[in-house]
Amino acid sequence: MVFIRLKVLCKNVYRGKKLKIAFISQPWNNCPPVKTGSVSVWIYEVARRVAKAHEVVVYACNNKVQKKEEYDEHERIHYRRVSISPDKLFLKYLKRFPMLNKNHTKPLFASQLYYLGFIAKIANDLRKQKCDIVHIQNFSQFVPIIKALNPGIKIVLHMHCDWLVQLDRFMIENRLRQVDLIMGCSEYVTRKIRTCFPQFAGRCQTIYNGVDIDHFIPGDESALKEKNGTKRLLFVGRITPEKGIHVLLEAFQIIVKHYPQTSIEIIGPDDKTPREFIVDLHDNTSVTNLKLFYTENYLSQLRTMLPPKLTDHVTFSGHIQQEYLQSKYSSASILVNPSLSESFGMSLIEAMATKIPVVATRVGGMTEVVEEDKTGILVEPGNVSALAEAILRLLSDEDERRSMGDAGRKRAVDMFSWDRISEKLLYYYENTYGNSYGNNRNIYA
């Protein structure tokens, strides 16, 4: 078992020293345990594995149920919850001043004012906890605040997006000087950081998102047979413009002309990404043009673009907890991810683990996840006809769907299991921690 190898690895590496590792969630992520949202899932799945060998603390905001429970322990993880109510009020006040977002490379969300109360409380608590390593998700502005109160701590900055290369370079460079390990959720993200900041290239590593290969398993083949010739397409992700769901619905109108019984289920919360997070920062016109979808609710726009005769063929299921997604994948013919911007593509590996072939766009980290023409098909983003053609190709060939499903399961197990991701992370921790502590293991050499 990988868990056993983790214990042996850590014993050999740290010579009996048990590290204290802190994971910091994004300010709006709850715990424990959270099984929705790629960043929250990553922290939960990795932290409970790392806790087999080391002491682990997870910082996150509290929700309505947890407001009176500041501390908790679950699966050997010490959860410490921080109220973000003061920050929300402060940010609401700051938004009255549009000049704070006037410079798109120095937006409010990238400033040290953004959730300052949240991270200040955590930085102060880290000093009391005496952690060896702190692992931050996405927000580089947390780095100097933590370092100011914890000068000896090792800092890991984990990027699930392109912010480091999109925001003001001088601002980011000053923050990265205090970071010991910079992680990207895909080589796509990591490579861009190395290119933009060559002086820190030796600190950059890739750590993929993962999938629970014991939960996302193939369903009973007899239950997967299409009923009455119905073909089932599936999309899983947030309902937000950069996910390209409008492109998928346009392609769907072509598909039903060939397969009238085809249906599509769109699973995910109506949770549009703030425009300044992606659209205003991007240099690709297909993404910057998405600002047109920010004039009104995106989900409403998707519903209105469907011809009346197709409304019964499309189901918007809203948010579904991850533990219930496996059956949705298993009953699908194809998983489609038509994103125009995607750093990784979590739904792809969940579908692959469930032996479902995938159709995705040739953007970001999805080109690393999908082995083209073996586990799925890749098409150019925003190309309606190419997307429809790829889906039609798989719908017409059951043998190819089955072959891609088998190959996808193998790839998910070999590359993206949470055990494998956690083992690799501990290896990086070893080198980061040992770099200044005399173990003579220096990944920066």
Describe the structure.
The chain has 445 residues and is an alpha/beta fold. The chain folds into two domains: 2-210 and 417-434, Glycogen Phosphorylase B (Rossmann fold, 3-Layer(aba) Sandwich); 221-415, Glycogen Phosphorylase B (Rossmann fold). It contains 18 helices and 14 strands. It has helices spanning 2-14, 38-50, 85-94, 116-129, 142-149, 163-166, 169-176, 187-196, 221-224, 245-258, 285-288, 298-304, 325-330, 346-353, 366-369, 384-395, 398-416, 418-434, and strands at 20-24, 55-61, 71-74, 77-82, 133-137, 154-159, 181-184, 204-206, 232-236, 263-267, 314-318, 334-337, 358-361, 376-379. The strands form two sheets. The chain has an eight-stranded mixed beta sheet, sandwiched between helices. The longest helix is centred in the last third of the chain and has 19 residues, at 398-416.
Topology:
Layout: H1 2-14, E1 20-24, H2 38-50, E2 55-61, E3 71-74, E4 77-82, H3 85-94, H4 116-129, E5 133-137, H5 142-149, E6 154-159, H6 163-166, H7 169-176, E7 181-184, H8 187-196, E8 204-206, H9 221-224, E9 232-236, H10 245-258, E10 263-267, H11 285-288, H12 298-304, E11 314-318, H13 325-330, E12 334-337, H14 346-353, E13 358-361, H15 366-369, E14 376-379, H16 384-395, H17 398-416, H18 418-434
Parallel strand pairs: 1-2, 1-5, 2-4, 5-6, 6-7, 7-8, 9-10, 9-12, 10-11, 12-13, 13-14
Antiparallel strand pairs: 3-4
Helix pairs in contact: 1-18, 2-18, 4-5, 10-16, 14-17
Q: What is the SS-derived class?
A: alpha/beta
Helix percentage range: 25-40%
CATH class of the largest domain: Alpha Beta
Portion of residues in beta strands equals 15-25%
- Taken from the alpha-carbon principal axes, the silhouette is globular
Radius of gyration: 22 Å
Low-confidence parts = 1-15, 436-445
Number of domain modules: 2
What is the spatial order of strands in the main beta sheet?
3-4-2-1-5-6-7-8
The CATH homologous superfamily of the largest domain is named: Glycogen Phosphorylase B
Separation, N- and C-terminal Cα atoms: 32 Å
